[in-house]
Structure formats: C-alpha cells, structure tokens
Amino acid sequence: MKVIAFNGSARKQGNTAILLNLVLDELKSEGIETELYELSGKPIKGCIACYQCFKNKDQRCAVEDDIINECIEKMIEADGILLGSPTYFADVTAGTRALIERAGLVARANGDLFKRKAGAGVVAVRRAGAIHAFSSLNNFFTIGQMIIPGSSYWNIGFGREIGEANNDNEGIQTMKTLGQNMAWLMKKLKG
Ligand SMILES: Cc1cc2nc3c(=O)[nH]c(=O)nc-3n(C[C@H](O)[C@H](O)[C@H](O)COP(=O)(O)O)c2cc1C
C-alpha cells in the first residue's frame, strides 16, 4: 500500500512539509510506502474548463504542458492521498487549488477515479484561516467518494518561519494520530 502526499506550499521543506512528514512517519511505521511530492517550483495552471477530459475519458487532463498528469498518475496508483497546504489569505495556496480543480475534474470525468481511497488534508498556519483552508481540502475528498480519517483535532499546525511547526505540540500530536488512523483505515479498506 502507498500514500502520496502533495505539499502545496511555495516553500519546500517548510511547516507544511514538517506536518506531512509526521503523518507519513506514522504510515511508514505501519508498513505503508510513502512519497512526499513538493509542488514548489512546478507551477500548475488552473482548470480552463475545456471539458476535454469528459470527451477523452483517458484519465488525463488535456492540458499537457505542466505536471498535472504526473500528479494524477500518482493519485491513481496510491491507496491514500494527503493534500497539504499552508494557509494563504484564509485558504489553500493557488498551486493546491489548481491541483484540486484539475485532478478533481479529471477524476469526475472518469467515474470518480479516487473512489474509496483514503484521503486527508493537512494545513499549516501562522494565526487564522486554517479551518477554511482545511474545508477546501476536504471538499476534494468528499465529492470524489473518498474516505476521510479523523484525528484528535482538525489537522492544523501552527508556525510562521520554517521549523516553527515543530514547536506546536498539539499540532504534532494531531498529525501523529492522523497517521495512525489513516493506516488503520487503509488496512480496513484493503480488507
Ligand atoms: C501569501 C501568504 C499568505 C498568508 N496568509 C496567511 C493567512 O491568511 N493566515 C495565517 O495565519 N497565515 C498566513 N500566512 C502564513 C503561512 O500560512 C505560514 O507562514 C505557514 O507556516 C507557511 O507554511 P510553509 O512553511 O509550509 O510555507 C501567509 C503566508 C503567505 C506567504
């Protein structure tokens, strides 16, 4: 079994990556393969509403000049998907949004490609707006018939400068519990 985690931060190895890695470490300790994919430096454009994916039905986005199809392939092959984003203006980053729009529409055009995979969102935040960003991530999972594991709090970690998320003890525990619950869920789903 494998989990693919996308970090939608503009900063590689920042607070969002720290939080995602805490979840991935728990998954690894349960024998699940993991990959962290940084979107930073790899711009994804938003959906252009060509609806070609509904005509082609080939599990691909028809706009081929960025990394979106590589991301969709990774989602298809994985058993679980993590979407991580810092909070930007009380929502997810533009890159995360573009990933959601395009992977989400291709999934719908092809009969809900990620149906009954496990999925969870993780959010880094300095002060406010994280719960809205978290909802934006969850909208991707719920419309796609995915199954979301819970944790001991909403999946949020606090920090501004890179590394500060390591000081948020409750955030750290939330990520660890999320990883444990995601592993438990994936094993049940594999049945
Ligand atoms: C463009 C931009 C907008 C931001 N908007 C918010 C915000 O609305 N609320 C907040 O608490 N922090 C905001 N922040 C701070 C980041 O969410 C915070 O520094 C986070 O830890 C960054 O995660 P990263 O290290 O993974 O990039 C913003 C940062 C940037 C660059």
Overview of this protein structure:
This protein has 191 residues and is α/β, with parallel strands linked by helices. The chain has a single domain (2-190), classed as Flavodoxin domain (Rossmann fold), CATH 3.40.50.360. Helices cover 43% and strands 16% of the residues. Helix 4 links the parallel strand 3 (80-86) and strand 4. Flavin mononucleotide binds next to helix 1 and strand 4.
Structural class: alpha/beta
Rg from Cα: 16 Å
Element-by-element helix/strand order: EHEHHEHEHEH
CATH architecture: 3-Layer(aba) Sandwich
Assign the CATH topology: Rossmann fold
What is the global morphology? globular
> What do we call the CATH homologous superfamily?
Flavodoxin domain
What is the topology, as strand order, of the major beta sheet?
Answer: 2-1-3-4-5
Number of domains: 1
Beta-strand residue percentage: 15-25%
- The number of distinct helices, counting runs of at least 4 residues, comes to 6
Tell me the major beta sheet: 5 strands, parallel
Tell me the total number of β-strands: 5
Average pLDDT reading: 98
For the record, the CATH class is Alpha Beta
Terminal CA distance: 12 Å
Show unreliable segments: none
Roughly what percent helix?
40-55%
Distinct small molecules bound, one entry per kind: flavin mononucleotide
